[in-house]
């Protein structure tokens, strides 16, 4: 069994770096604060006797040697970058749970046949730089190192320059690194476990995701003198599409999701009929055929809206990954460890993307969820219970040992 | 007859200050560019022999003395501030038409019995600071100088500080200034004159206006893991209110108007369900009873939406003025001048608010409209024909002379 207090203390220590007044954390990828967080975790790893390597996209691998160093490592990990108004647990928990597994094995003097590795991946959140889940995406070849390097934040700073600046541009070529199996612990970021009063979520799969930018172009005109019948109001037309995004998701329960999260109105003046509206669309489903049906229905609705309204409507897909079912061996290992330890449990499909979906392209992978308060994440008030975090870490310990062999 | 070429040249000269790439003007109230525009117009006034006074809210009065200085002046005016993506004519035409009337009388050596004044009023547009038509509103006592001074832009800068900064906080107490009659020339900002192929719009009345801020508060949460049924999506709820604003206006043709022009979404992130949405509502009608019915229907819809959705919805009225019928004497003077000059004409109800509605609280007032291209205003592509602008200015000349007596 792992040491829950030590895990909690490490989480609270790391959360001080970038702490916000409302109890959250703002530690955006490749900022000075990210460097400080990375240095702290790497320091802890060295204290625990781990060897540390960094790859060219800044992914960090902290290795505990096995009796048979030629075996591919059993890996766990997550990320330590946060949302602009993020919490203490999203990502950080997965990294520090891995460290706690190693510390526990050290305490008990337990060696494993296969090596163990704890990884943290660069820019999972995608808040400062797109694409999201950048480090693990480059690692598994979902997109190239050059694409990632070229990404820029809103101030025009590039991933390449910022990575070099904070001293985390390593030498290792991303992905030249066999993996035996990959596990990731994470807070659920949704309300399912808490509602069902369960401690451990076994994650059979992660939903696929499609992201779009939609631009509706009308004609800006004065809100007073322009008769209702002569308007080309880009916002009014947009509202019907925004509603359809939710209606489409509701047609495909229980795993359809549809969200419009970002909206910009031009010129955004009280007495001007909006001439242009830009907004994001986020569609998800755990079934790729249904995700594709949702995609088609949305495009068809936009076509109808375009001809009904006479306004120009542009729609562009800006991100996509298919649903990711996890490997039966890893899902099984999580399920068995949970049963052995006697925690209440249920299956929870992940609605959020995780580095595990990219790791899953290279090796058998699985995830372990624990509840978070009110299902809230991507919010400074994100919270989780210490006993739940401990339970998830115990499951991780046993699942990893099952794969690494004592 | 006035000099149409000189009027056009002055309009084009003023339009250089804050000129935008698309041929429009961005010269927001109390910015450095506003100061530059003010300085240019004041310079022209001095060249034309006018005396200039500035009041405490920055309204500028440019006076041509009459044979009888104790008579209240016959005034004309408008504004030179613009929308963020505004045109060259909105407001500026009314001010420079007044200046052209004076220049013409100077050329011809014509004196008037009553003094003439050309005014430009501070922050008519209401884009940077609310309330709209601020200078004329303070002048007529619609709201207090303190209210106006306290208004802040989105960066937190106040009217008081910005007025002092650009050097246009005058000494004169606003409103201590009798007026004999007030005329304002303006582009129509709507399509009615152009559709009917008429040159001069005689304006019997201006629609009343009600402005609101609406804030819908839900719960921000992750767009992936949060099931559709458990969301408190502030944007989705907002879209139904946004649509109702237009539906209400459509129920009261031909003079009902409903517009949502400004929207802010928080936190405005692609994968976060919006926790809060703020938007503006603009309702208008030329009949105060109908405007009130529209107001009541909107509040009732918001009440129903609040209880149906369970979300908190705040609605606050931030501006209101009732419909303003103009004075028969001034409407008559415009009608007669138009007939005498032989221009084609029709009556046009103004959907836009104008400084004239506040001036109308202190003196008989009337307005003269000329067509603008495609009825478009509050847009960089706003355009008007030089011969139409000249015609409107000729009508202004004759209407003012009729009231001021030669
Ligand atoms: N876990 C997480 O927040 N990932 C970001 C990508 C997503 O929106 O699912
Ligand atoms: N003329 C004009 O644009 N006035 C601003 C107030 C309004 O929205 O009507």
From TrEMBL, chains A, B:
Belongs to the peptidase M20 family. Binds 2 Zn(2+) ions per subunit. PANTHER family: ALLANTOATE AMIDOHYDROLASE, ALLANTOATE DEIMINASE-RELATED. Keywords: Hydrolase, Metal-binding, Zinc. Residues 207-302 form the Peptidase M20 dimerisation domain. This is Zn-dependent hydrolase. It comes from Massilia atriviolacea. Zn(2+) 1 binds at residues 79, 90, 186. GO terms for molecular function: hydrolase activity, acting on carbon-nitrogen (but not peptide) bonds, in linear amidines; metal ion binding. Its cofactor is Zn(2+). Zn(2+) 2 binds at residues 90, 125, 378.
